[in-house]
Amino acid sequence: MSFISTGVEYGLHCLLYLTRSPAAVQEASVRDLAELQGIPNEYLAKLFTKLAKADLVVATEGIRGGFRLARPAERITVHDVVVAIDGDKPLFDCREIRGRCAVFEDAPPGWATRGVCSIHSVMQIAEKAMRAELKQHTLADLAQRTIDKAPANYGVQVVQWLTDRAANRRGDKDEPAPAPAKTRKRA
What are phi and psi of 59, to 5 degrees? Predict the structure, then answer.
């Protein structure tokens, strides 16, 4: 049973391409991100709607429109993305079965149901630890890990691919691609 949805995985992978890292661009369309990752466009559009409602991305206008991060990648945690896509629901739903033991004959003694269920308590501790860990990792961290692992030309290929798609939508196919983020000067 998966507690964190596939949507979170898809969303995180696509957000990495908006981090302004050497393997990313500042903005991209959902259609292009879906094609790049092999994800159904309609599904990714729904995920980006959730990400926008959580103020993690903002829509950009015009023919080249799409999405960009709403704040720097260093300030968006994996936990932020999980909550935006899956909600802030608990990972464990205690059904309080401890009071249903057949030997109690529908009248459980007080000791059986006193306090928090010991199983539920362990699950709450585990969830708290997991959420704390997810809050320690940002999109910028994930992007850097990807860059560190990938061959040097990967980032250039991704930026070129996304830039070509955006240029084709605008109709300016002869426009040169902007330099990868690694060599761009930031204001």
Answer: -75, 145
N- to C-terminal Cα separation, the chain: 46
Which two three-digit tokens encode residue 5? 């949805």
Position of tokens 């996304």? 162
**Domains, in order of start, for the chain:** 6-90+138-170 (1.10.10.10)
All residues at 6 or more sequence positions from 89 whose CB lies less than 8 Å from its CB, including other chains:
none
C-beta of residue 90 within 8 angstroms of C-beta of residue 105 = no
CA 166 to chain CA centroid, Å, is 23
Instruction: Find the range with the poorest average confidence among 12-16, 40-44, 63-67.
Output: 63-67
Question: What are 78-112's pLDDT values in tens digits?
Answer: 999 999 999 988 888 888 898 888 999 989 999 99
